[in-house]
């Protein structure tokens, strides 16, 4: 008589999760600190599925909360992520390449915001993707300039955008003919679609750009700070956390 091992679907799912954790997380993260392993349990937010650390939402344990990766408005298709005190829409995420497409929330569906400011997201753990295109948006321009789009709201004024790669030699003249200017990055797909838009439709355009996050630096920061260990980077992807505190 042969005995059989029967596993339920939930049991199989948990087995797969811990199997992946053991092989894709460094030893000190998956064996020494069971609480930190739970930071990698997947969750959904908006249209973004199977999110794991360093992303988090309210209600996740403090150990799982890394600054710059908090998500809110998960009922929207594109949730909001707060980076360096500024809100962005999370449009796309590839956790295998540590790349995400985000868009400034103040420019989301409105390229003519009330507060015209430059925003920088780069930090020790976050950098712009090198394939982004750099654009400059000029506002309050002379109506006689070509390729203008009209901003509405508190009064009406004319604006335009220029590609830094090919049109920088025009910028001095444009600054004389326009008022405020802000710099905006867009990814390749957004730039291609932007080229096909008529100026009249630009006011409601959604400008996304790509950023890359450094998971090794994030894990190292968690080790040194919230886990009170000593980080040692032995891999380009994952560091080792020596002697972490247990919770």
From TrEMBL:
Q: What coarse category fits the chief subcellular location reported for this protein?
A: membrane
Q: Which UniProt keywords apply?
A: Membrane, Signal, Transmembrane, Transmembrane helix
What InterPro entries does the record point to?
Answer: WAK_GUB
Superkingdom of origin? Eukaryota
> Signal peptide location in the record?
1-30
Bilayer disposition of the protein:
Single-pass membrane protein
| Pfam families xref list | GUB_WAK_bind
Q: Does the keyword Transmembrane helix apply?
A: yes
Q: Does the keyword Transmembrane apply?
A: yes
What compartments host this protein? Answer: Membrane
Wall-associated receptor kinase galacturonan-binding domain: from which residue to which, for each copy?
Answer: 41-104
Name-wise, this protein is: Wall-associated receptor kinase galacturonan-binding domain-containing protein
Q: Which organism is it from?
A: Theobroma cacao (Cacao)
């Amino acid at each position: 008589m042969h005995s059989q091992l029967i596993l339920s679907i939930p049991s199989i799912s948990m087995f797969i999760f811990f199997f992946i954790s053991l092989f894709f997380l460094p030893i000190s993260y998956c064996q020494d600190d069971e609480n930190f392993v739970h930071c990698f349990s997947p969750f959904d937010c908006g249209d973004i599925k199977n999110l794991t650390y360093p992303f988090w939402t309210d209600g996740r344990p403090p150990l799982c909360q890394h600054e710059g990766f908090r998500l809110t408005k998960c009922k929207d298709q594109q949730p909001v992520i707060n980076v360096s005190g500024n809100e962005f829409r999370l449009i796309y995420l590839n956790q295998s390449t540590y790349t995400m497409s985000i868009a400034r929330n103040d420019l989301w569906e409105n390229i003519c915001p009330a507060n015209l400011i430059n925003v920088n997201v780069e930090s020790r753990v976050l950098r712009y993707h090198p394939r982004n295109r750099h654009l400059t948006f000029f506002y309050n321009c002379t109506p006689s300039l070509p390729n203008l789009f009209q901003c509405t709201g508190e009064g009406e004024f004319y604006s335009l955008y220029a590609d830094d790669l090919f049109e920088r030699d025009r910028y001095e003249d444009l600054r004389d003919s326009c008022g405020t200017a802000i710099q905006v990055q867009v990814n390749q797909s957004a730039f291609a679609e932007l080229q096909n838009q008529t100026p009249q439709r630009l006011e409601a355009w959604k400008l996304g750009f790509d950023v890359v996050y450094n998971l090794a630096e994030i894990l190292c920061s968690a080790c040194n700070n919230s886990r009170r260990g000593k980080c040692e980077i032995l891999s380009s992807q994952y560091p080792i956390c020596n002697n972490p505190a247990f919770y």
